[in-house]
# Entry
Amino acid sequence: MNFLRSFNYIEVYNNLLTESECEYYKDILESPKEQKVFNKWGNYVGIAFDLKQDNYVVHKLTSSIEKYKEKYTFLTSFDNWGIESLCNIQKFSPGDYYSNEHAEHGPNPWDCKRVLTWMLYLNTIRKDGGTRWPQQKYTSKAKSGSLILWPAGWTHSHHGIPSKHQEKYIMTGWCSFI
# Structure
């Protein structure tokens, strides 16, 4: 019997961070000394965060990326790629979200070398507030401490889903060729 095995290449790793660890990263964003950036695609507040300051989350990400590579072994054929040192911590107010369907790989010097995208939910949202990948017909739920890994290319375009009643906090970044 012949059949095709279908992969959507979107992997969820639950409980990567504890509630208190998620609070730690949310507090970094909420710190008055951090310079906030307001995005034109949605009314969210964000900061750039340097992972060189935080070996703990890098260790957790690395461990999950190794599991991802065990499942999708083709990635081991690539040399010289890894976690980018800069990532974003973002806060979306109730009703706000990153509405444009987009991919994480593009023609710009900062995104043309991206291989994978990662996103950590820093809070649980009871209703809506997740992320949607239309081409894969997949929607994630925002669950505190959960990590999602997926390919950065056009095949994995995605957009946020608003929560009408809760704020949404995420930490997101990329793995790129060095």
Notes: DSSP finds two helices and eleven strands in the chain.
